[in-house]
Amino acid sequence: MPRSPSDPAASIAESRHDFGEHGGVNMSIEASATFTVMDPETMGRVFAGELGPDLDYFVYSRHFNPTVMNLSRQIAAMEGTEAAYCTTSGMSAISSVIFQLCCGGGHVVASQAVYGGTHALLAHFLPRVAGIRTTFVDVSDLDKVKEAIVEGETALLYFESVSNPALTVADIPKLAKIAHDKGVKVVVNNTFAPMILSPGNLGADVVVHSVSKYISGGGDILAGAVCGSADLVNSMMDLQQGALMLLGPTMNPKVAFELAERIPHLALRMKEHSARAMAYATRMKSAGLKVIYPGLEDHPQHHLLKSMANKGYGYGGVVCLDMETEEKAYKLMSELQNGTRFGLIAVSLGYYETLMSCSGSSTSTEMRDEEKARAGISPGLVRLSVGCNGTLEQRWSQFERALARIQE
Ligand SMILES: Cc1ncc(COP(=O)(O)O)c(C=O)c1O
């Protein structure tokens, strides 16, 4: 059952604060692979499921770990879900949920506009290794979604709240209603919009994250999270049937500690990423560039995003520029990095520096040309993950200088 936070920052602040072993303001790191018990009978009861982490009984860190639970509680609070658990990467969070929810092969309906790695997982890997088939659809066409769902066969509907890289916004409440009417679970990837959107409160059953992006913010850690009901998280840790327990992508407690220190200022970071992205998108448009940004009135889902978003966090930190050809895209990125030092040519997002990549020849290369076209990825699409360091005006003058140089 989702809780209903009016503001994710308030929910995070209200969640349990674990102190350190010696009264430290931060929790101690429970850096143990294994846990001891007072007597052999207790261990038997833990393995039988009679005693568990809710009563402070732990067995082994591939199963629940207290430090990973601390981070997971904060992420659950942010998403307004009953529970969450963290994984080694976004991809392991996504694949574990799909394995958990698809029984005996199974069918997935997914958005055609998803991150290239997820597309490859669904289009190529899962059919080959597990007989899990996916029908890709344009999720903004609700009739197509209805048609693609096969009652009794489709296990889940998967889409990104704001798609990577084309920034298409999904109508989470309407999609959830369509899926639920047909008994299908809804899994939403909220990597591009933490704090901004709370898919769990809009109807999603499961929310997944690539924590490697905004939640981390440091560009130094790969991590993921699965947020949903306590039943789902517990089922994923089941000793006989749990995808997290048996495939083993659970997070290292040292990594969980690092990340837990970054959650309290995620709200501030998201506000700054969004404010700068909005300012640059507006100015880039005035400079005559073809800009895709859901904060702009001309974005097809601007009003939809506004209607779903938590107030005060803006429209996200990613702006796309359609430079039409790869050649022009490369020229602009080179000048922005090597000429004026506006940002770095690198994949990923959510870092404090601006990161720039040409999606068609980087993070979406897993897709064929016609699949990219359907997902709104033109050859010259430059994805900018707008950073939050330096000053807005300093960065904008770097952008303007680079633009002037390539237009000479
Ligand atoms: C929307 C989305 N989902 C999943 C992933 C994969 O995450 P990770 O690199 O943490 O495995 C990415 C990475 O770019 C992403 O953008």
From TrEMBL:
Pfam family, one: Cys_Met_Meta_PP
GO cellular component: cytoplasm
GO biological process, one term: transsulfuration
Transmembrane segments: none
Cofactor(s) needed: pyridoxal 5'-phosphate
Residues with the N6-(pyridoxal phosphate)lysine modification: 213
Family from the record: Belongs to the trans-sulfuration enzymes family.
Record protein name field: Methionine gamma-lyase
Native species: Kalanchoe fedtschenkoi
